[in-house]
Specification:
2 copies of one chain form a homodimer. In chain A, 38% of the residues lie in helices and 11% in strands. With 481 residues, the first copy, chain A, is α+β, with helices and mostly antiparallel strands. Chain A has a 5-stranded mixed β-sheet with strand order 4-3-2-1-5, with helices on both faces.
Chain lengths: 481, 481
Amino acid sequence: MLPIQPPSVFQRRRRALAARLDRAGSHGALLFAGGATARNYPANPWPLRVSSHFLWTVGASLADAVLWLRRDRSELFLPAPDPDDALWHGASPDFAAIASACGLDDVRPLPELHDAILAEGAHGIATVPVMDPHTRARQRAWLDRRWPDDHTPRIDTLDAIDLALVDALVSERLCHDEAGIAMIRRAVEGTRAAHLAGMAVTRAGLREADVRATMERELARRQLPCAYGSIVTVHGEILHAREDGNTLADGDLLLADVGGECQGWASDVTRTWPVSGRFSSTQRELYDVVLAANEAAIAMVRPGVRYRDVHLHASLVLARGLVALGILRGEPEGLVERGAHAMLFPHGVGHLLGLDVHDMEDLGDRAGYAPGRSRSPQFGLGYLRLDRELQPGMVVTIEPGLYRVAALLDDDARCGPFVRDGSLDRERLAHFADVRGIRIEDDVLCTPTDPVVLTADIPKAPDAVCAAVGLASASPGIVIG
Amino acid sequence: MLPIQPPSVFQRRRRALAARLDRAGSHGALLFAGGATARNYPANPWPLRVSSHFLWTVGASLADAVLWLRRDRSELFLPAPDPDDALWHGASPDFAAIASACGLDDVRPLPELHDAILAEGAHGIATVPVMDPHTRARQRAWLDRRWPDDHTPRIDTLDAIDLALVDALVSERLCHDEAGIAMIRRAVEGTRAAHLAGMAVTRAGLREADVRATMERELARRQLPCAYGSIVTVHGEILHAREDGNTLADGDLLLADVGGECQGWASDVTRTWPVSGRFSSTQRELYDVVLAANEAAIAMVRPGVRYRDVHLHASLVLARGLVALGILRGEPEGLVERGAHAMLFPHGVGHLLGLDVHDMEDLGDRAGYAPGRSRSPQFGLGYLRLDRELQPGMVVTIEPGLYRVAALLDDDARCGPFVRDGSLDRERLAHFADVRGIRIEDDVLCTPTDPVVLTADIPKAPDAVCAAVGLASASPGIVIG
């Protein structure tokens, strides 16, 4: 609830944000935390997940709180505690304790904020719409915004003053301070334990849900919520697989995309391992191609490098590997240019990582794409979520993959041209029938010098992965099933 | 996604509901499933949990679906699949497969429903507001309802036609059919495994989160979501404790209120066990008082018995036990009448259980309270969520407890009178300092004859509980740590 890092972290961030707002001519900003949303009835909500913009500036997870940020003053407004709160929820920190932990000038009851806005008007005060629709309705009413009442407004339709706040938040949040990176590292620690436990518990006969539950247990025991819906599947070709009822068989590869978050800061890691603990030769050949792309892309994470070029280089390494295996035919550069590789690697090579697993994706492409840039119309490249020059302090994922997606390979409009001109050999691909999907995803910190792979301790080399799968019964503390 | 029970189950329910609506003069109803809600950005939603009313009548978990229920026809309307769905989410069942699995007359694209409403008008068509605000905005717009745009409308402010639907749903859902009870039993099976695993893993030095994660793993591996936010705490006196970072010590009692749901059908179970595997004498004395109240209340779950009397009888048994221990003083009947027991047992003895863990609580007290009845103004009794005569097919929880809540015991307005007139001996209570909170909760099916305790296999007798805690290292498949 209260931050576990010193108040100076949040004071420094607020000062920097306020200075940017000041330069943009804004009279300050109201950052709303948002509240818990109902699951099946109001008293049974989903866990509280406050707005990442609020978390970044305040550090505390406080339902329905609002930060009023001005150049010389940071005040937090909180709903008055219900007299029965102590009975049902136990003692909660008082306003003074919150002010101290977050380094705030004052903490006051929320109605005083509404009164102040009614008295002085909201002119010149910026805000950014939160996800929770109840809170968004409050923002709309208090600040007289013309947002649609049912969905999150498109960012590019916001008032100019709010866009200035959005741009200030993007500028500040693109590159993380040491405190943010420390939190990502803690999330990664738990995520490493989750992947090790998942590898060790894997054996034929279990279901995907067994492995997923074992992995998520390692996050939960460390009080790290899942940063996103876990994917643990023998059908890695279903990119957002949500079903986890399949039974593991010895010839399967298991793809696990699981990451925890610490104080809101995310990790995002995918590993792919053989259920039997041994890759077949065809699995190993394609795994090595993906691994080469992963490593080549990671090596490019340096200041000034355009992330789109990282994506294209990873695609080129994949294409080279696929040509060597006879699955693609032709000159790798030309294949990538025409998008032939995207028949087997349809998504982007990664994205920003921070307080959101796709950091600041609530702001559309305003965070991921540099001003003046927009999505490519080309299939595959158009799914790339990040097209900026990398800077020290940015954390990005690097997650190339190879997939045999029937819906894509059988799509004559998309795939047909590559088949007919001989670029894609579907018969040769059929020899790799025991591979449905492979993805290898790391979290990488850009520094002034070499990239730092925050997830380097999670087994990735084929032998290390197989060894971790083989640990099953030997490791104390690991579930046998 | 599709029901795992035969379509006849849902056809039967729809026929019964439609007949009631017909008698109420309604021209049919639109039951909206609702969609997933955003966590920190739209593409990172909470898991889909469709409306329980929709689940009851259709059986399938389909985002943004709408059932149009009429006396002679049941049609389901679904968003048209996105062409890229197969790429990202894999193959999904086609409309014919859904119609067949749910026993529907037709499945059609959602825009056709909107067109039909625009053409024919929504006159005489009832609906019930869902939790998901996006969908509620759609209901409001399509059916021209005057609900507030930011919060769930209060049920008693709904249009008469919608209230008739609400009452029909309540009448049908109060008593479960065999299919519903079968699903609750499956949820209970997983919940039993969770509690056994939690007991077995417990030992001093672990944190609450370790036990919670181990329990939830047993649910997750069976593909049973948590029916509600788990409570696993050494501070049982915090009734809705959400923190789980405390370290377990040998003198502690651990209270675990954890239950899974199967196809939406909930279980809700609390057990309290000693971390050391042995109750102290004071812990054992209070545990026995709670257990006696639990058993006495369960024995009353019979047709025609007013649930409020079950609550009052459980309170009486608690009061008797507390008098015997010298904590309360006086005549037990009089103590309960004046609410003295509520200083140690402030909540209700239980609630309806069904597709919601507090079944139909989205309808306020319209489900829990019989027409003409309302909440008591008395502290404690006023928290009772159910005041109806029990009927065969109802499932209720029975969950008495004893708690030393400082915020209540030190509250002079509430507790002072009982201290001053000698009813409550706080010095005597202080002898039981190693008890902070005990609750024992079962799920009980009312039948024409004896009650059926669906959770009977989950250890509850003190010796059985201690034996289950002691199992830790002996049991294969149980996590050691």
